[in-house]
Amino acid sequence: MAMALQSPALHLSHDSLSNGFLGITLNAPQRPNSQAAPKLGTNIRMAIKRWERKEVKENSLPVVKKLHVKIGDTVKVIAGHDKGKISTVTQLYTHNSKIMLKDVNLKTKHVKGKAEGETGQIVQVEAPIHSSNVMLYSKTAKVASRVGHKTLEDGSRVRYLLKTGEVIDSAEEWKKVHKKEEKKE
């Protein structure tokens, strides 16, 4: 009875099972390269680490924290090793209240050469800092200040600097910032 159950398919060696299935060679599925290799000589940005978990609500949506700065604001660093530097906000991370500033909090990254014989490079990378370590800065008065909110006569809510009274969210400023962003793209 045992002889009747034997077939040529059951006499497969371990080597043939590892390479294929019943004589058919199986190839491992090729994943498309979702992350393009960083171009050397360009500005590399620090990414959120895999182990950084986002705080979520009951419906699994991330908790978004309100920040006192926006993209394009001029700020002064008030804490950390870059204390005293004046820069502009380039990116916001609302899930952990961190911001990216232009040419502030630079980290050194060692990049391998991609091709054989190509030498590696040492690249300066901007890393995010916590938004509590910066204050809005007035270029005209050359002073850092806390931010306040007020409603204008036309009903629009704007942010302003408490020390100088300078309005930050004027329509002209908003247009300037977004025109610069469009030109870069």
Automatic annotation (TrEMBL):
Domain KOW positions: 68-95
Gene Ontology MF annotations: RNA binding; structural constituent of ribosome
Record keyword Coiled coil present: no
Pfam families (alphabetical): KOW, ribosomal_L24
Keywords, ordered alphabetically: Ribonucleoprotein, Ribosomal protein
GO CC annotations, alphabetized: ribonucleoprotein complex; ribosome
Membrane-crossing segments per the record: none
Any single GO BP term: translation
Listed name of the protein: KOW domain-containing protein
InterPro entries: KOW, Rib_uL2_dom2, Ribosomal_uL24, Ribosomal_uL24_C, Ribosomal_uL24_KOW, Translation_prot_SH3-like_sf
Recorded family membership: Belongs to the universal ribosomal protein uL24 family.
Gene3D superfamilies xref list: 2.30.30.30
Record-linked PANTHER family: MITOCHONDRIAL RIBOSOMAL PROTEIN L24 (PTHR12903)
Ribonucleoprotein keyword on record: yes
